[in-house]
Amino acid sequence: MLIRMTSEPEQQPGAGVPDAFERLWTPHRMAYIQGENKPTGPGAGDGCPFCAVPAESDEDGLIIARGEHVYVVLNLYPYNSGHLMVVPYRHVADYTDLDEAETRELAAQTKRAMTALRTASGAQGFNIGMNQGSVAGAGIAAHLHQHVVPRWGGDVNFMPVVGHTKVLPQLLQDTRKMLADIWPS
Question: Which residue among the candidates 83, 143, 145, 147 is catalytic per the annotation?
Answer without folding.
Answer: 145
